Amino acid sequence: MKSIKKIVITGGPCAGKSTAMSWIRNAFSLRGYTVLFVPETATELITGGVAPWTCGTNADYQKCQVSLQKFKESVFEKAAATMDADKVLIVCDRGVLDNKAYMTQEEFDAVMRSLDTNEVAERDQYDAVFHMVTAAKGAVEAYTTANNDARKETPEEAAVLDDKLIASWTGHPHLR
User: pLDDT tens for residues 50-82?
Assistant: First the structure.
């Protein structure tokens, strides 16, 4: 029987997500998994010109981002189901609930309603969530935004965002 697992790598800016995903690819490939990566949706949209500051409102942008995130994940799940592999690991560079950190609660609730879903359903669709702590907390000398054109946060803003991200995922039974 085929095993398909889906996990999220999250965390504040400059947290080491890319390094972690490289480690995951190597470690799980050695364990017999086919490892698939869903790219970060925000970076794709922002570098493509679709951003909170280019859309009508932040909520308008977030609806676009969450819709695309959900669509991409479903494509990866469908593809995984067709693969000639017993074990598939889908790794999401951020998940749907990451968006909550960039909105008010009212905006988030409206986005969930507009997509006919809810926070618990979106949270619990992942088998595990791994939160990487930003370098802005405790290693500020290593903090940089130079490796991602979509990121502009100061170390102080990154630390606040990191707290919001962990809060967004709190309640997941396999949050690490």
Answer: 999 999 999 999 999 999 999 999 999 999 999
